[in-house]
Amino acid sequence: MNTSHPTYFLWQYRVLICIVTLVVAGSALAFALLSPVKFDTSISFSIDRVSIQETSAYQYDGYYAIQAADLFSQTILSWFLTPSVLLEIYDHADIDPGLTSIEELTTRFKAKKYSAQNVVVRYVERDRATAEKIASALTTVIEERAATSNQTAQQESVFAVSGAIPVITEKSPSPLFTGIVGLIAGVLLGCIAAYTISGMRVHKAPEEHT
User: Fold this and answer.
1) What keyword terms does UniProt attach to this protein (predicted)?
2) Which end of the chain has fewer CB atoms surrounding its CB within 10 Å, N or C?
């Protein structure tokens, strides 16, 4: 067999490639099996107009209402990037946030606006009880803040923000998927290791003859 052929190269380093593949794939599989189950939570907030502001262009009232709702939804999104609001949620839930840094706190919640009147918040917690407590506190805090943040001069709320029933599902790495990814990564790393060792041997050989 031609020693420069890729098949010969893979056969020559088959033991190394197999060892690296098994180690990486085994580590990935162990990670998937030993990782604790977490709880992925999603809460949808609807922004509905409850009072009509006077305008001289009534034919455009619906358009203006949607634009106003869109701007107000941006305010709601900003609350999930505000540390004081997030701490208020944990305080309302009577849960220690385990704060390590401000940056870490603001990355726990992922808020996304799907339309002018629909904002969805997602977060992951270590157990269902904690996820449920935070969901209840989060809904209360956001609804209360919204009620006092969009009032007219007559102390009437223009929009009402209401949270839907939270959806909580278990989240854990798939052993099959993680194992396959680990297997592929192991083969690639094994080949890289083999090429590295082969290159070092080729580089070292001329030095030994000099």
Assistant:
1) Membrane, Transmembrane, Transmembrane helix
2) C
